[in-house]
């Protein structure tokens, strides 16, 4: 048995007069010890900071403290953060804007973000660490994420986005006593600087143009004044929803979505040949050449056998052609929603073992954590973005504004 590092007399003094029922709670001795330890570490950091030559030379000194509430486990802890006169002090233990002390919560949230259920997390903690926690406690910890989601969802956006990809995926969520398929709407924006970010996350019963109109208004209300190019799937009414809020936006229908729709009409044996017949249309050098190739397809054997394919391309033609105005390296970015579908695959991987979510909030928590983990790797623009930026600057003139150099 390991020998205690604390003398019995010290423990007796600490426990003297303490209520055994509350000694381990945040309001009892345990909470007081955590508070005292944190404040002692913060003050030691301040002593080290003020002891640096540069701070001594400038005459910097202590200037009181400020109160801050941080989360530790599933409880709140009020600590006093020391301040210096010149405002140079930045503690490592509790950084600026940090509201959560590292530890148990982060481990739980990391496991939850990887798709583990509360029961699986409970079993994992008990098996590896011998820690017994209830599913309710794990839910309390993960529910704290919802406050961060609300702040993230309401954050201001950029005034201008060069490209925004819109798409939705289906997730099973329990609602009113029944498991329903709901649409999770996502939007990825590329700033004029080339940096990429997820603009928002929305959940609705069905994917429809009316709800997309609400999404557009939400983006507008959060500060976005203009979107140069919007890349969408072939949902009817979606272009009108975008243009109602952003009238100057060029709407580009995803060619991959259009191809998938076209191939649905053919049998499996025919699809490879049909795809080859459609390829000259979207690989044409100009919009005029693409239209000529479409007419040839319509007059050919495939067009005669499946006239509904030609009808679908002609119906979307206004929003098929915008990418023809750009060179190949720009077309590769805007002709498809692959950028957002790659994000969808990460989300699906995290949710595939769950079956369904008990509520919209549970789905929101997990999906947001997946988005956060993916977005953390978007550290710099694509290597070819300077060339794309030159093209956009020519095509869009003053509308193309780099605001975050």
Structure description:
The chain has about 400 residues and is α/β, with parallel strands linked by helices. Helix content is about 50%, strand content about 20%. The protein contains 19 helices and seven strands. The protein has helices at about 10-15, 30-50, 55-60, 105-115, 120-130, 135-145, 145-155, 210-220, 240-245, 255-265, 270-280, 285-300, 300-305, 305-315, 315-320, 330-335, 340-350, 360-375, 385-395, and strands spanning about 60-70, 75-85, 160-175, 180-190, 195-205, 225-230, 250-255. The protein has a five-stranded mixed β-sheet with strand order 5-4-3-6-7, sandwiched between helices. Strand 1 (about 60-70) and strand 2 (about 75-85) form a beta hairpin. Helix 8 (about 210-220) packs parallel to helix 9, helix 11 (about 270-280) packs antiparallel against helix 12 (about 285-300) and helix 17 (about 340-350) crosses helix 18. The radius of gyration is 28 Å and the shape is elongated. The chain starts with 7 loop residues before the first helix and ends in a 9-residue tail after the last helix. The model has no long low-confidence stretch (mean pLDDT about 85).
């Amino acid at each position: 048995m390991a020998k205690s590092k604390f003398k019995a007399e010290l423990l007796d003094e600490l426990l003297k007069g303490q209520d055994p029922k509350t000694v381990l709670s945040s309001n009892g001795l345990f909470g007081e010890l955590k508070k005292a330890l944190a404040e002692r570490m913060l003050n030691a950091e301040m002593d080290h900071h003020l002891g640096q030559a540069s701070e001594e030379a400038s005459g910097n000194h202590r200037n009181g403290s400020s109160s801050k509430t941080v989360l530790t486990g599933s409880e709140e802890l009020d600590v006093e953060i020391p301040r210096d006169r010149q405002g140079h002090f930045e503690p490592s233990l509790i950084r600026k804007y940090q509201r959560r002390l590292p530890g148990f919560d982060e481990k739980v949230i990391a496991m939850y973000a990887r798709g583990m259920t509360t029961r699986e997390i409970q079993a994992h903690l008990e098996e590896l660490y011998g820690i017994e926690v209830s599913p309710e406690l794990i839910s309390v910890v993960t529910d704290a994420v919802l406050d961060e989601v609300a702040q993230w969802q309401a954050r201001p956006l950029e005034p201008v986005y060069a490209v925004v990809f819109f798409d939705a995926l289906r997730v099973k969520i329990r609602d009113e006593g029944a498991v329903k398929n709901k649409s999770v709407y996502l939007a990825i924006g590329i700033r004029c600087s080339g940096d990429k970010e997820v603009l928002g996350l929305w959940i609705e019963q069905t994917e429809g143009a009316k709800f997309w109109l609400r999404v557009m208004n939400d983006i507008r209300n959060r500060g976005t004044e203009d979107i140069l190019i919007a890349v969408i799937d072939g949902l009817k009414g979606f272009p009108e929803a975008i243009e109602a809020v952003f009238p100057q936006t060029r709407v580009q229908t995803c060619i991959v979505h259009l191809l998938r729709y076209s191939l649905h009409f053919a049998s499996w044996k025919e699809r490879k040949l049909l795809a080859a017949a459609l390829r000259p249309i979207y690989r044409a050098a100009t919009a005029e050449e693409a239209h000529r190739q479409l007419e040839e397809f319509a007059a050919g054997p495939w067009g005669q056998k499946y006239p509904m394919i030609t009808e679908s391309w002609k119906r979307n033609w206004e929003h098929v052609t915008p990418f023809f105005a750009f060179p190949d390296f720009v077309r590769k970015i805007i002709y498809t929603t692959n950028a957002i579908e790659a994000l969808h695959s990460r989300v699906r991987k995290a949710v595939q073992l769950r079956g369904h979510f008990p509520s919209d909030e549970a789905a929101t928590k997990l999906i947001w954590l997946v988005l956060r983990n993916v977005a953390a790797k978007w550290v710099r623009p694509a290597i070819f973005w300077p060339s794309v930026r030159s093209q956009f600057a020519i095509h869009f003139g003053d509308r193309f504004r780099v605001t975050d150099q």
